[in-house]
Amino acid sequence: MKVVFTHANLFDGTEHTELRKDVSVYVDGEKIVSVEPGSKPLHSGSREIDLTGKYLMPGLVNLHAHLFGDGTPSEILGGGESQKKFLDSLKTQAGMDAFVATVRKNTQQALYSGVTTVRGVGDFCYSDVRVRDEINSGKTAGPRLLVAGPAITCKGGHGDGFFSVSSDDPEELKKIVREHVDHHVDLIKICVTGGVMDAKKRGEPGEVKMTLAQVKAVCDMAHSLGLKVASHTESTPGIEMDLQGGVDTVEHGSSLTPEMIDLFRKNGSSITLTLSPAIPLAKLPVSITKLNEFCVYNSDVLVKKMVEGSKQALAAGIPVGLGTDCSCPLDPPYNMWREVRGFAKYCGVSNAFALQTATLGDAKIAGVGDITGSVEPGKEADLIVTEKNPLEDLTALRDVTMVMARGSLIEHPAVQKNKKMEELLDTIF
Ligand SMILES: [Zn+2]
Questions:
Q1: How far is the CA of 121 from the centre of ligand 1 (A)?
Q2: Ligand 1 centroid vs 185 CA: distance in angstroms?
Q3: 158 CA distance to ligand 1 middle (Å)
Q4: What spacing in Å lies between the alpha carbon of 15 and ligand 1's midpoint?
Q5: What letters, b where the CB count within 10 A reaches 16 and e where it falls short, cover 31-65?
Q6: pTM score > 0.90 for this model?
Q7: For a designed S-S bond to 8, which of 51, 134, 383, 390 qualifies (C-beta 3.0 to 4.6 A apart)?
Q8: What is the mean pLDDT of residues 154-167?
Q9: Within 10 Å of residue 69's Cβ, how many Cβ atoms?
């Protein structure tokens, strides 16, 4: 299909921070073939979409997502009997099929909200691989998915027995990486420190759980097989471990030391900021989030430390990307706009910089910067249309009016939002 978007106000995602007025973007099949001022006569068979008064920009890239949940606070995240029941249900074919349907739906919600690339960093039983393959084969609509399969950690590490598989033996960990590669994952996810959701005491999210030998074993094996490693890391000592072990993307993050800045540069590593899960957990009562009492304290510390670390990284020219960590309580799959706006607000960056980060910046970190993230000839046609100017007001991204993913047009993207959850989030974030 040939589509021409005409008379668009274009934010192209590159270093151009200004809006380009009255631009035409020509799409042929999956690709953008040209971007030009004004409009020329259309080829026969081309469809024109007049965007007079509207705004066109690259689709958003969510660097940190879990696909299993829709953000409704659920007891399965807190462990116990309901978690066991959920995991048992995945052992049957019918249970697994029902679960994959949920993953498919959540992934579509992300697409309809304007996210055209999602990096999945930990899901159950390769459900993420299955949905990615469905999307790539054209069986179902969805964003470009880059997926990690189940996260990997040590015994008792973050998510162990839930969304993570574990071993203490470096050789066993290498075997798990190979198994993941046999299942055709796109990247490897490890959990170096504890996490907010399974913490049983103050400060536990930052506790380093994996050893350097374990981290190195995973990173070396992943790198030898051509994959990058993302690590769940929520403290300064954890980041030190990541950088020594060879982690490529530090997920969540914390404050940095000057020595770390050098290591980030040397390794070419980056940070993925995730405000979306931490702010609701820090600001809302546990009666709503359904997690334990340490959650509020730990999340509050995490928000401050993540913001501090991201600011330090930005000042030093270390790439900072954005992810929502959706599936956490009160963190639905259509929340990327909130993360982008939160980045501008908490880290004090301009709207233009936040938009570049959420598009080409994130695409580069995900390793797909050469095929998506900007509106340029040769790139895949991942585009969104908004009514308002996102450079002036980032809430313009809240309701996108059109989405194109790899050339597939969704004219009236219908996100099924949880109204009560949206109202609650609007009071805090
Ligand atoms: Zn996560």
A1: 6
A2: 17
A3: 10
A4: 29
A5: ebeebeeebeeeeeeeeebebeebbbbbbbbbbbb
A6: yes
A7: 51
A8: 95
A9: 21
Q: How far apart, in whole angstroms, are the C-alpha atoms of residue 298 and residue 202?
A: 6
Cα separation, 251 vs 168, in Å, equals: 22
Question: b vs e for 330-360, b when ≥16 Cβ sit within 10 Å of the residue's Cβ?
Answer: bbbbbbbbbbbbbbbebbebebbbbbbbbbb
Residues 136 and 149 in one domain: yes
- Residues 360, 253, single domain; the answer is yes
292 CA → ligand 1 middle, Å: 18
Cα(52)–Cα(85) distance, integer angstroms: 53
What is the whole-number distance in angstroms between the Cα of residue 65 and the centre of ligand 1? 6
Helix (H, G, I), strand (E, B) or coil at 258: helix
The model's pLDDT over 108-153, given as tens digits with 9 standing for 90+, comes to 999 999 999 999 999 999 999 999 999 999 999 999 999 999 999 9
Tell me the residue range of the domain where 413 lies. 2-58+374-426
Last residue of a domain, one of 341, 365, 389: 365
CA of 27 to the centre of ligand 1 (A): 34
Query: How far apart are the CA of 387 and the centre of ligand 1, in A?
Result: 31
Residues 246 and 119 in one domain: yes
Q: Compute the average pLDDT of residues 235-263.
A: 97
Domain count within the chain: 2
Tell me, yes or no, whether 112 and 22 share the same domain: no
% the chain with pLDDT above 70: 100
Regarding whether 110 and 228 lie in a shared domain, the answer is yes
- 333, 365, 397 — which closes off a domain? 365
Residue tagged 């993302």 (tokens) = 230
